[in-house]
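Good morning,

Both structures are done.
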Amino acid sequence: MLAYLQNLAVLICVNAILAMTLNFLMGYAGIFSLAHAVFFGVGAYAAALVSMHVSSSIFVCTIASMALCGALSLALALPALRVRGEYFVAASLGLQMLAVTVFSEWRSVTGGLGGITNIPSPVVFGVPVETSNGFFLLALGYLIAVALVLWLLVRSSFGRNLQAIRDSESAAQALGKNVKAIKTLSVVAAAALAGTAGVVYTFYLSFINVEGFTLDLSVLLMAMVIIGGTGSLFGPLIGAALLVLLPAALSFVPGLPQAEVGLVQQAVYGLVMVLLMIYRPGGIVGAGKRRRNAVAQAQQAAQTSAQLGEGGAR
């Protein structure tokens, strides 16, 4: 039972990294992408190939994965961000479909539908990671590191510029902000950080194939972000936990055939999304954050009015 719970915990960490990095695009940059699974896959394949042919050091594999994902994201961001948001969605969908074809057909590199097997264990400071506890700590460490990087980015001047562009691109441009450069950098950062999830996933399973990086995953990641709450650092973490634990919970429902679990799961996803859009459009965390922001804005407005009143009385 402990091994099963550790497996769920690792998968939650991997999906949370992906959801948090996608939320950086959706919630803070206002960029909607249907290709996040592509960067997950590229990071996974890069880690597998580097570990088998160059070095099994976790740090070498991570750097290679992040660099390759960042470079690939430029191929998407540079042409797509020259136009408005809906065109980026279309371009990202095209990249997702193209990537699945490449993962399936480039057999000499990706192994085709059979995938890549016998991936060696990662080495951290000269010590191979081979136990369930070791992989859980590794996944948790990557989750914390990615969350910290995103937190620093959001609170930096870059993050504030990004949110200003999200709120009003024309106003930000009028203030002299380089909108295209900032948006492109946000896509590169999100893609590179998403590649780290592929590193953890690759070494944890010791096997990867194209079925783990399809459009279904990109849509599921978007659902995690929306359910958890966009524009919140911890909302996607909650969304990832819910949507990873849900299939596990359904598998224990008495009388439910295992063959029907997938269909029931999709129906529950759809129902949850509809109910959230009606009653909590900001997501589980996002709605509470909006209320706090509204209260803060009301307090600030009241203070401003009071100061203006005092000035008029004098």
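Second structure follows.
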Amino acid sequence: MEVANANKSAIPISKFNSEEKTYEIVSDLASSNAVVLFSMSGCCMCTVAKRLLFGLGVGPTIVELDHHAAGQEIHSLLFKLASDGQHKPVPAVFVGGKFLGGIETLMACHINGTLVPLLKDAGALWL
């Protein structure tokens, strides 16, 4: 079965189902965990994000996309979320069920003092 898009070309319905499933995976992870970090093994900026969160006393749920069954699809979805042209799709940080951003946003929030209150509100810190 196929669905026609605005350009009159056919798009397989399975593509929509796959995107919906990927969105559900990410949404379920983000909403059921205080902090979720989507990462890639060997990514230095992902390591920086992990160390910052661990250093603050946060135990984030870490999803290594290169080891996850739906890793490529999740990576594509994260690329769309960070599609301002300046940010990489990983690391991608969700706090309190909401997309915070990548390493730049995480570091900016830490430097300007808004990260700890955000983490407390999400239930990731009890201090």
